[in-house]
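COMPLEX REQUEST
Ligand: fe (ii) ion
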Amino acid sequence: MDQKANPQLPIIDFTEDSLYPGSSSWILTSNEVRHAFEEYGCFVAVYDKIKMQMNKDVFRASRELFDLPLETKVKNVSDNIYYGYLKLPMIPLYESLGIRNATTSDGIRSFSNIMFPSGNDHFCKTMHLHANQLSELEQMVARMVFESYGVEKHYESYAKIMTYLLRVMKYRLPQKGETNVGAHVHTDKSFITILHEDQAGGIEIRTKDNEWIAMKIPPYCYLVMAGDALLAWSNDKIHSAFHQVIIRGEKERYSLGLFSFVNGIIEAPEELVDEEHPRIYKPFHHYDLLDFYAKDDDHKTECTMKAYRL
Ligand SMILES: O=C(O)CCC(=O)C(=O)O
Ligand SMILES: [Fe+2]
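STATUS: Structure written out below.
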């Protein structure tokens, strides 16, 4: 079949028990990850360590959050647009809440204390556990990327300062005459993003050939995307995928993303720089990239990284 007529994202299997650092399946998978990131900027990870019941619980918890009164949700304030409660007039279908430092119990608890002042232990336990499960997949992928470029010696210093934002997102159905755009075309500002959804579909990824792949992320699968920070770290070897959300179906979309951010300087390792591939981006603090993005009021720049540091 002509691939171009029906482009598909690479699917990478993370379910094997033999997938541990150094094993032959680990090395093979690392190369698949690198190839997928270079060609598509993303891939579908099949990952069965997160049980179906957990997915049901997190999306139930998401609904509970979005059902809270607006005056409660807006209390999730942040100095950066990427965190906090987000609802913008130009994308009326979209609403999201960010949970900062979601892999730590303090991070979850301080968010939960604002949303549920009389306490919600179940919410805290579910979200904390889930953020950690997703971060395990993120760490596996990041380690594989470093290894497959032969720069594993730099991995630990990045892993030590990685922070995680969990964002829960809701897209209501459009009313008659209303736009069906849920999220405009963009690349993520993260190092790596892990997305999953409650079976409504709507995410669309643009290939390098400018073809759109619209997909529903299947159960036990996660869409793993390279963000702008990983693109910069790789000295442009890795592609950060352009994507958008369009609500075409009959079902509201609930999705959840774990975004990793380096609390420190991003810099391409020497090994990825040579005469043929000179350093493209000056070293930068990852949070400064986020601040730069936050100042771009209309979010018109498709690729923030290029605008920020070329
Ligand atoms: O709803 C989704 O799955 C995608 C959201 C997204 O692209 C983002 O938050 O960066
Ligand atoms: Fe995104």
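REMARKS: DSSP finds nine helices and 14 strands in the chain. The mean pLDDT is 93.
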